Amino acid sequence: MAEVIFRALLERRGYPEDWKVASAGTWALPGRSATHEAREAVRSMGLSLEDHRGTEITRELLEQHDLVLVMENGQREALRLEFGNAADRVHLLSTMVSEEHDIPDPSGKGLDACREVAGELEQVLTSGFETIVALARNPQTSADGGRAS
């Protein structure tokens, strides 16, 4: 959901089409479609997940991206430990709006949970848009404006 919401924000704000935005999961099942509930949640926002297929995160995929945003602190820590060379590019999404909390995975929790998470994603991605763009352009800068460690 975050991928399609962020793509829509880029488009609405006139960013070039060469921005590479991708979604991958730490325990994703490769090739799996988005859940019906997730597809319905973004459909109500005028977006589509019909073409989405699950992708597992790999070292090669990480190396292709300047910024990696995760939903949960456990994901951030796991990626930083497993892929130390990418640690400075891995950030918790909520820190883009100067907060630090997990955005829960709504899978298996029904349509209302998916809609709630989609709404939170839209709010965080919209409010944190400039921070995300700055980090993507300069991955060595941390979300709080300092240098990443």
What does this structure look like?
The protein is mostly helical and 149 residues long. It has helices at 2-12, 36-43, 59-63, 73-82, 111-127, 129-137, and strands at residues 68-70, 90-92. It has one domain (2-137): Rossmann fold. It has 6 helices and 2 strands, in the order H-H-H-E-H-E-H-H. Helix 2 packs across helix 5 (111-127). The protein is globular and about 35 Å long.
List keywords for this structure.
149 residues, mainly alpha, Rossmann fold, two-stranded parallel ribbon, 2 strands, disordered C terminus
Query: Strand sequence of the main sheet, in spatial order?
Result: 1-2
Q: Report the top-level CATH class.
A: Alpha Beta
Biggest sheet character: 2 strands, parallel
Q: Provide the helix percentage.
A: 40-55%
Going by helix content, strand content and strand pairing, the class is mainly alpha
